[in-house]
Amino acid sequence: MLQGRKNLMKRVNDFRLKFGKKELVPIMIGGMGVDISTAELALEAARLGGVGHISDAMVTDVSDRRFDTSFVKDKTRFYKHNIDNSDKSIIKFDLGHLAEATRRHVEATMEAKKGEGMIFVNCMEKLTMNGPRETLQVRMASALDAGIDGITLSAGLHLGSFGLLADHPRFRDAKLGIIVSSVRALQLFLRKNAKLDRLPDYVVVEGPLAGGHLGFGLDWAEYDLATITAEVVRYLKTEQLDIPVIAAGGIFTGSDAVSFLESGCAGVQVATRFTVANECGLPDKVKQEYFKASEADIVVNTISPTGYPMRMLKNTPAIGSGIRPNCEAYGYLLDGNGGCAYITSYNRELALHPRAKDIVVMDKACLCTHMRNFNCWTCGHTTYRLKDTTHRLPDGSYQQLSAEHIFKDYQFSTDQKVVLPAPSMAEPVLA
Ligand SMILES: Cc1cc2nc3c(=O)[nH]c(=O)nc-3n(C[C@H](O)[C@H](O)[C@H](O)COP(=O)(O)O)c2cc1C
């Protein structure tokens, strides 16, 4: 009882995440594509002594928006003749453009970095881009060239990815981490990479309550993060491998984080609470949807063409949308043969309803276009608790928070408490 009370009083700030001699606040803000985890958000995490992530998802589009480049327009123009063709296999990414867009995104972020923390890039391997190996290699190498502190490999983790970087001069100095959802996935990765003599610098263990794509099936509710992290921590200890374990998924309060840090994890990765931060890339109107959500509004479905289940708000505009596939502009989910499950579903509905003005596609979504337009409202399971982290304003909306406030709440709060921000306008309406 006394022990339990002592734990409640501990703070995340009593722990440190160690990378060699470097000591960090053990809080990582997870990568959220497409540009939901903006450079501004990652920079705040680094300034406050933790780890922030940018994402390289659809980086050519992110570059166009951030730096007024025209990669997407140029690609669309180049493949314009193919727009009405259901076969998208000719659409390839220009590797030079991909490298330049990555370099711009990473370089500008790293140049603005202040403080003792670090900035990593989240690389989702399921962005197969009709050329999985070469595009991933370019994405990772360009991020390293541009000075990123580290790379977190996620979604569709490929066992050979570290090998793609083995000749890069920063292969051993940059931090390389992986996201897994089971001890088995970690074992496979380590076995496959043994000959490289290069262990991951950290392992994010992502449980079933996370946002984005899940490393679980539709039976996700039968798993829990504490059990999986305990298995991973035990396995690494048995193998005498000193790799920091970062727990992720559903960690909502500082006390939640402390319970993982007490049980052998070196840090936590959090995201959902930051989706309503001022610095988060979601439009303000969408942030209000996240605040408003109840638990019943949050679903896990299989509309992502990647084949992985994904969690999202059930009023997500992407669900049921039958827009024309936009691979000439994007095409990030084209597999190595130029196929995408959305194209298949879209063509099926088109054949069934040839005269319809708008078609409905229920089983898959055009994820590139909808993520790009912030119309796929992916979120963590705890999104329904966001309304308890802030004030309701007189107009009925919820007050957004600063990333600093949320970060410090994780860092310093105790007793399962969430500290509310200072009211921003007039008097808050009592809920
Ligand atoms: C809106 C949103 C988008 C996400 N996008 C990605 C992504 O692009 N790549 C990835 O590896 N994880 C993604 N995630 C997962 C987070 O990085 C993180 O590991 C997880 O959500 C942590 O759990 P929490 O949200 O309960 O704090 C996303 C999460 C959210 C909430």
Low-pLDDT windows of residues: 426-431
Radius of gyration using CA atoms only: 21 Å
Tally of individual helices: 14
Q: N-to-C SSE series?
A: HEEEHEHHHEHEHEHEEHEHEHEEEHEHH
CATH topology: TIM Barrel
DSSP strand (E) fraction? 5-15%
What is the distance, rounded to the nearest whole angstrom, between the alpha carbons of the first and last residues? Answer: 33 Å
Q: Give me the secondary-structure category.
A: alpha/beta
Biggest sheet record: 8 strands, parallel
CATH uppermost class: Alpha Beta
What is the CATH architecture annotation? Alpha-Beta Barrel
Please tally the β strands and state the result: 15
Number of domains: 1
Q: What's the CATH superfamily, by name?
A: Aldolase class I
What does this structure look like?
The chain has one domain: Alpha-Beta Barrel (TIM Barrel), CATH 3.20.20. It is built from 14 helices and 15 strands. The chain has helices spanning 2-9, 39-47, 59-67, 71-78, 95-111, 132-145, 161-164, 183-193, 225-238, 254-262, 284-292, 341-352, 367-372, 403-412, and strands spanning 17-19, 22-24, 27-29, 51-55, 118-124, 150-154, 175-180, 202-206, 212-213, 245-248, 267-270, 298-301, 310-313, 320-321, 360-361. The protein has an eight-stranded parallel sheet. α10 (254-262) links the parallel β10 (245-248) and β11 (267-270). Residues 426-431 have low confidence and may be disordered. Flavin mononucleotide binds at residues 30-33, 36, 55, 57, 122, 124, 154-155, 179, 206, 209-212, 248-251, 269-272, 275, 378-380, 382.
